[in-house]
Amino acid sequence: MKILVLGCKGQLGRCLNDQLKSTDHQVIYSSRDQIDISDFKVTKSKILEHSPDLIINATAYTAVDRAEEDQETANLINHIAVKNIADICNQQDCWLIHVSTDYVFDGNSKIPYKEDDQTNPQGTYGETKLKGELAIQISGCKHIIIRTAWIFSEYRNNFLKTMLRLGAERNELSIVGDQIGCPTYAQDIAKSIVTIITKLNFHRNNGIYHYCGDHSCSWYDFANAIFDHAMAYNLKIPTTVNSIETSAHPTLAKRPAFSVLNCSKIKNDFDVHASNWHDGIGRAIKKLLLENQVS
């Protein structure tokens, strides 16, 4: 299968590179410098030139707070550009795997969200990502939409790397303890996508799927798990980690209080298992140590 990966330099894009290189697929990796999805004409021209069987869209405007101040750009990347890609896929009879977010929900649930639960985004990021999902569905293209949450890896900026940096710099940290979600190792998302690809020819139905970590925790719990692993590698960690309420750490964009996703559908349809995020923390730290990115 010929695969075009959009956003190859991001967290997920780099993990897709790691996971796809051991397959027999012909993979074309494209960064924003090569295909800027906000330029619709160039995007269409490049896609037609490559003529892929499948496009994986790992590109997104993910700066949640900045999106509140730059709504136009967030909508352009997360919605209108996605609509353009989906329309091209429909015209070319090309599959589209698109990555979305838990932010399409309002975070008021008490039980894990299923794919058909009512969406109700609370900010620009979630609103534009939901519009992107709807545009894909309306386009008529063959598609798989994967909603995920709390992504971390050894690549780019993320919560794990921030905690390792701050833990080395400070003796005391305060971390939000009343937001609940499921950390998700980006390498596991990429592995899941590779598994899904092998079954696309047998799976004719379009769909939305949830994929995240195998159990829930707070950001405070997540931070402590990171520091437990870091300590095992003799990395410096803070002596005190405090749990604080969301109200003590105000942000421009509202964060969902509850972001747990039910992953039973993706397991039933593709035999894809939830991300073992504790294991992922250890794997990510080990890779960072090998690359001398932490000390």
Descriptive account of the structure:
The protein is an alpha/beta fold. It has a domain of 206 residues: Rossmann fold. The chain is 42% helix and 17% strand. Helix 1 packs across helix 7 and helix 4 packs parallel to helix 5.
Overall average pLDDT: 96
**Number of DSSP-assigned strands:** 12
The CATH C-level name of the domain at 2-158 and 184-214 and 259-276 is: Alpha Beta
CATH topology of the domain at 2-158 and 184-214 and 259-276: Rossmann fold
Which stretches of 5+ consecutive residues score pLDDT under 50?
none
* Total of helices: 10
Q: Kindly provide the radius of gyration, computed on alpha-carbon positions and rounded to a whole number of angstroms.
A: 19 Å
Secondary-structure blueprint:
Blueprint: E1 2-6, H1 11-20, E2 26-30, H2 40-50, E3 54-57, H3 64-69, H4 71-92, E4 95-101, H5 124-139, E5 143-148, E6 151-152, H6 159-169, E7 172-176, E8 180-181, E9 184-185, H7 186-198, E10 207-210, E11 217-218, H8 219-232, E12 240-244, H9 264-270, H10 277-290
Parallel strand pairs: 1-2, 1-3, 3-4, 4-5, 5-10, 6-9, 7-12
Antiparallel strand pairs: 8-11
Helix pairs in contact: 1-7, 2-4, 4-5, 6-8, 8-10
